[in-house]
Amino acid sequence: MQRLYEKVGAVHIHTVFSDGSGHYDQVIQDATDAGLEFLLFSDHWTLKPKQQGREGFHNGILVGIGCELNDSKGRNHLLAFQIDEEIKAGIDPLEYTKKVVEMGGWAVVAHPDERRDALPEFPAYPWTTWDSEDFQAMEIWNHLSEWMERLTNRNKYWLYINPRRSVITPTEWTLKTWDRLNLKRRVVGLGGVDAHAHHYSIWRNVNASIFPYKIAFRSIHMHVLFDEPPEEGNDDAALTQLFQTLRQGRAFVANRYVGQARGFRFWAEGVEDSKIYQMGDRLPAVSQLTFHVNLPPDVTHAVLLKDSQQICHWKDAEGSFRSIGSGVYRVEARRRRRAFIFSNPIVIEP
Ligand SMILES: [Zn+2]
Ligand SMILES: [Zn+2]
């Protein structure tokens, strides 16, 4: 097994620069307390915190700053990282997605299939621009969306008190869409916390903060696997390295509330040449691979999927399986009945 350096962080965070309630320093402190090693902020429409020089290491935690865009109907949310210039509102999602990529940025579709049946006062903001071929990643799991989706007038007090209990699983629809996209091109899967610590008036005149940052930072995490650990002391190099590794898809999503996912690994080895491939890698159709997993102790079982179909089931700490032709291969691990870990895929192209 290739030695990799694992860093754990949270993605998709709002602050007082848009509609979040937290101040940067406090949010960073909360993330540090939760044991996180990087944070990606994305306030609506603004890059002001980046322009103020807030990117880089803050007491050991690496901070990257992008922004979140949307269309005139409030839909098609896109996280834009690694851009320096703000994008003006009023253009359609096809255009702003293209623009982000042209500017050298990393375009991430946010909460693609948000649904909200129970509470009409909070409409859903799904992604509908699937004809775009420019976005490079998508959220496969979003804490806030799922929390809101499960909210009904009957359970809202319970969910308010138990915010992490609402995060159960990404939707089937999202996962299948993600697999389908990956047959054609690399679309990296991310888990977003979408932390706002909103002050909603959840029942009559009571204003309450919906799951504070502290809580959000103990749910959906991104685990990124580096060849070399990003070094403190060179902010720009470390950020470039973080985004490069994320863009490659060398990362997995895990729910910290369910267990400790550190140490999870999914990789493949060429049958002929013993070459090692990592999550995010794409190979030509003739390739024959042996897939391998290492499962941390909190995992009770894991499955290997090919094009959304389960093809192998593992219960032990280590497992392997020989590829069966072209397809999008990825791993889902569970702890008892709870969704826990979602790897990025290794793809044998059609
Ligand atoms: Zn959004
Ligand atoms: Zn957001």
TrEMBL record:
Recorded protein name is: Histidinol-phosphatase
Under the heading InterPro entries, the entry gives:
PHP_domain, Pol/histidinol_Pase-like
An example molecular function term from Gene Ontology annotations: 5'-3' DNA exonuclease activity
Source organism per UniProt: candidate division LCP-89 bacterium B3_LCP
Q: Which domain of life is it from?
A: Bacteria
